[in-house]
Amino acid sequence: MKTKTKQEIKSDIFWWWLLIVVPVVGMVVVNLPPNLRFISDKFCSKSPENLDANYRYHFSESLRNNPNQKEATQQEIAFYQQRLAVDSRSGLNRAALAGSYLKMARATGEGGWFLLAEQAAQRSIADLPFDNKGALLVLARIAEARHDFPTALRFAKQVGFENEDAIALAITSHLAMGKVSEANAAAEALVNRIPNLGSLTLRALVRESQGRDAEVLQDYKQAMALEEPGEVAGSARARSLLGRFYARRGQFVQAKALFLEALRLVPRYPLALIYLADLEVRSGNYREAIGYYSKVSAYSGPVATVFDRTVDRGMARVKELQGDAIESRRLRDKAEAGLRQEQVSGGFGHRRDLARLLLEKGRSQDVTEALTLMRQEVKIRRDALTLDTLAWALSATGDWKGADRVMAEILRSGFRDAGMFYRAGAIARTLGKDAESRAYLQKAKEIDPSFDVRSAKALGLATDEF
Q1: How far apart are the first and last CA of the chain?
Q2: Domains, the chain
Q3: How far is CA 335 from CA 30, 107, 328, in A?
Q4: Could you tell me if 257 and 48 are in contact, meaning their C-beta atoms sit under 8 angstroms apart?
Q5: Contacts of 109 (CB under 8 A, 6+ apart)
Q6: pLDDT at position 345, please?
Q7: Rounded to an integer, what distance in angstroms lies between the CA atom of residue 209 and that of residue 204?
Q8: Do the Cβ atoms of 300 and 312 come closer than 8 Å?
């Protein structure tokens, strides 16, 4: 019998290693996505350690059996479609179907669901023209999504302001129109009628617009103390909005913990992912920011959503900060094309977002168009961000006095945002109001002690000085 050489023995070992190890590796690779999901689920089974105890979700056990929001809504849609197959003239069932379509639109951000909801609601009213509050509320929300706030309020009035959903719609519409006192009155009425997670979150938003920070935190704490296990989407939204509040105050650790808690409740939640990405941009963690932005796009798949343009603009900002001007320009061009198409196709494109994008691009023709867009926009919407965008456009075209007047309107409302005070300071400095400029810049620091020139650049403010 021939004795094997050392080289032959090594060769045999190598081939046995391939025969044993490669199949095992193959099985691991094949099962990698489920394994990663398992690890991710285990990792997310607990609240972030640095999250304020008042903001922890206390129904973790219910999350184990909590159905995916999209799947649950698909089941609702199928249920009402089956009922309509039996009785196609049922206005109530079609109104319920319209509500499910709207819920799906909010969950996915896909414009097609908004249009289906609108069509179903209109047909429901045709079949049931009287006492059809469900369909009217859907049409009100569709009008609000299109920024047609007077129409939204008209539908809400038809429903009647004894209805909690109609009051809620009045709050958000009045806020968007800059009618803060009306929004505040509606919010107080809603909380007095039904103090719960939803009503207290809305009142917190109103109080934030008035700069009543301590009361904002009080409302969120009370809201989360009253939340129930069946309202996971609302719980995730409340934490995302509170996280945004903390981020605006420079409290990034608490903000991030809240965003992660929201994602624990609703994995892939676009609002939390976008806010989290924005936070990482502000912190200079560009790789992490790209990762979170990419998750928003990955989860929506090939279907266009209302989140796509926000993601493209965010990614463009990151690439610009990284010094990749070519990729930044490509992403902004992509976002611009999408925003223009959305405005033409379904009416859900945001004119303000297009204006801000054009201002970021900065070419003279873009700036001129942005100002035209914002002069139109402020006729229907006068919240702080809209007015800030108008001030940006005015200053970009050299109308510094006009920009100063607009910023004064924002600051009179009480709204507290470091970036807006920074812009007000830059405008005042250009006008030679040095003392006023220093006061604005100091106020920006008081609101957010971490605010500096890098923060300004991360937010797209063009000034290089602080």
Answers
A1: 86
A2: 373-466 (1.25.40.10)
A3: 36, 21, 11
A4: yes
A5: 270, 300, 305, 306, 307
A6: 64
A7: 9
A8: no
What pTM was computed for the model?
Answer: 0.86
Which burial class, exposed, middle or buried, applies to 8 when counting CB atoms under 10 A from its CB (0-12, 13-18, 19+)? Answer: exposed
Q: Helices 308-321 and 286-300 meet at what angle, rounded to 10?
A: 160
Query: With helix as H, strand as E and coil as C, how does 348-378 read?
Result: CCCHHHHHHHHHHHCCHHHHHHHHHHHHHHC
Place of tokens 């969120």: 220
**Structure tokens, 250:** 């420079």
Query: What whole-number distance in Å separates Cα of residue 374 and Cα of residue 369?
Result: 9
Give the chain's length.
466
Q: Which tokens belong to 329?
A: 């320009």
Closest of 287, 240, 283, 278 to residue 450, by C-alpha: 283
Check if the beta carbon of residue 437 is closer than 8 Å to that of residue 428. Answer: yes
Angstrom distance (rounded) from CA 53 to CA 59: 13
Task: Give me the pLDDT at residue 305, please.
Answer: 81
> What does the block give as tokens for 82?
């089956």
Tell me the average pLDDT across 278-285: 94
